[in-house]
Predict the 3D structure of the following.
Amino acid sequence: MSEKKTVKRQSRSTKHPARQYERFHWTQRVEHILLLTSFSLLGITGLPQKFSTTAWAQAMVHFFGGIETTRLIHHICAIVLMFLAIYHILDIGYKIFVRRTRLSMLPGLSDVKDAFQAFLYNLGLTKKRPQMGRYTFEEKAEYWALIWGTVIMGITGFMMWNPITTARIFPGEIIPASKAAHGGEALLAVMAIIVWHMYGVHLKRFNKAMFTGKQTEEEMLHEHPLELADIKAGIAERPVDLRTLRRRQTIYFPVAGVLAIAMLFGIYGFIGSEKTAITTVPPISNPVPIYVPQTPTPIPTPITTAVPSSMLTWEASIGAMFQAKCAMCHNVSLATNGLSFTSYADALRGGSNGPVVVPGEADGSKVVLLQSAGGHPGQFSLEELAVVKKWIAAGALEK
Amino acid sequence: MRKLLSSHRLTFVILIFGFGLMVFALGGLVIPVGASPASDPVQNPILAQGELPDNAACLFCHNKPEMSRSLPSGETLPLTIDSSHFAESAHEGVACSECHNNIVTFPHPDLQIQTLRDFSLQMYTVCQKCHEEQYNKTLDSVHMRAVAAGNTNAAICTDCHNPHTQPVITDQNGSLLPAARLHIPETCARCHSAIYDTYKQSVHGAALTQESNIDVPTCIDCHGVHNIADPTTNAFRLQLPQVCARCHTDPAIMDKYGISTQVLNTYVADFHGTTVTLFEKTTPDQATNKPVCFDCHGVHDIKRVDDPVYGLQMKENLLLACQRCHPDANSNFPDAWMSHYIPSPTNFPIVYYVNLFYKIFIPAVIGSMVIFVISDIVRRLIERRKGVKHV
């Protein structure tokens, strides 16, 4: 995006103060600062997302305050980078159409030759180093890699940011493919910065031109001899007379303005065009009530199965219930209160105080009255009592 | 007046004595036909002061069928212990008085309870005497929190483990017997019957209840046992993928059914899974709306992915699942999720070839750069040794 400067070596034996050449305008230097900040933050917030299962990635995400904050930082830096890209496009446009400066960053066959020659020189296969102009092949490689990378990251980033919109146009598979490309490109970019940029302008020697904006004549001679020759010959810049400049500006500025507005709308669409997902926890697809006890209270009692009305006879079920609950005392031998429940006839006959089961009169039967009051030594459960009442109401049948 | 009173007293004493005799005679009558040969018919159940009763003494009465007591609530408290069931239970050999240590005298002290539930709630704390580990675990459970908050319906020890009939369900090492697994959902169903009915229809529940397949999870495999956590918390949600992964990444189980063990990897590699994993690692209580396994596959109604009606392999079903969170999603959208596939030339080929491109492109570019940089370093070292001040 911004032009960079690599100087191979600086002579330490400068005897006289060297002449300084402006290499980078202050706007380019600001551009570079913004770029390096956003790029670094994008890298350190993005790679932990790519390698999220590793401990280092988790530690970094934790450091940033969690994945949501990490993503927020990532998104903000992406927006900064997008603004930077718009500025850069407009700036390049101005240089091309208004100033008509040389397109010194355009790559050409000479750059391939230079690279090849530099490599041969390093291997000792040639004595001559390549003579390069304003931008060396190393700088051009990095610049165009950055352009390529930003375009790829922008497109794939858009698709991940706006998957619904993307899926309206492309097959859904493009979204995971975008993620794969975004991650691959990120890894490539970060590694290239570490290997190429770090070595080229920091390790070999710290090239301060991007921060000071200046280079000495010696550095220029060593690094950009062809540009230095052009400067000395007075043909590096093609001066534009003021009238022509104004004329071009009156055409370019409105065009650039429209273009800028269009691109800003593009950013707005990028950030705010779609509501991808609901913000609440997804609803459970098929909710069921949690507490639905099989018995009234979850006490470990044997589960009483309801007796079907067809079984409401002494022989089918009722007799057994009386046998179980009552016949311990009210049996033939003990016959407490003259009452026995060991047979249907006995039960209907009643005790010494009269009948206890009045067929058809459930609420008038003594057995129901007594059992409803509770506290009898042999006591029906509520379910059993209900069954007995039903049986009596239905006529207290034997069979 | 005084004479009258003392004569009343005398009558009372005679009556009590008579009643005692009758009880004794009754006992003698009933015992020979009683179900338990274990109880000693000639032993007097009435205890000497300070002596703890043995089980035979308790069962002398409590082995009689259909002994019960009605409670003020109208409920009936069953008092019969089936000694044959008890003899087969895990507690065989445990003295009644170990747990019922407040009713070791006869006549028994009166029960201070209104309802059946009161009785259970009074009793369950005695379990900690022997089962301290399990008891302490329950203190962290969603059930005990509910009890502490005043919900008396929430499950306590005895709701799941009937102390008089609970069979042994673990081996010597304390691990659950495979056969016991088959009945776990029935236990939970006592209170969660609607969930149980749903579970029975699910791929797991159907296999367990219809085929007696013990590879499938029962309730406790996901919810835990004793320290059952609240499944509605953020933490539970974030941990869920790991819960499912316990079985679904185990080839020993999955290979039998031809199910991929890559389901966790592929989930974690995706945007949703990455987020959930990072939340779980960094902020385990974080709320997240990113889907976890059950948001797509169902909670208790998990179906086979190739289920003819509900299966997620059917794109329409997957789209419905997507639309629960992405209401604007169209029919292309479900392919944004790779359905647990690892990209290959046949499945998600674009993703596969993008990955392949970078697998070649990154080493090629970075490798070239490294080679050039090394050549440059070597050249510089050589020239420095030669003393060449190269400009």
In short: Confidence is low (pLDDT under 50) at residues 1-6, 20-45 of chain B. Residues 202 and 314 of chain B are 17 Å apart (CA to CA). Chain B touches chain A through 99 residues (CB under 8 Å).
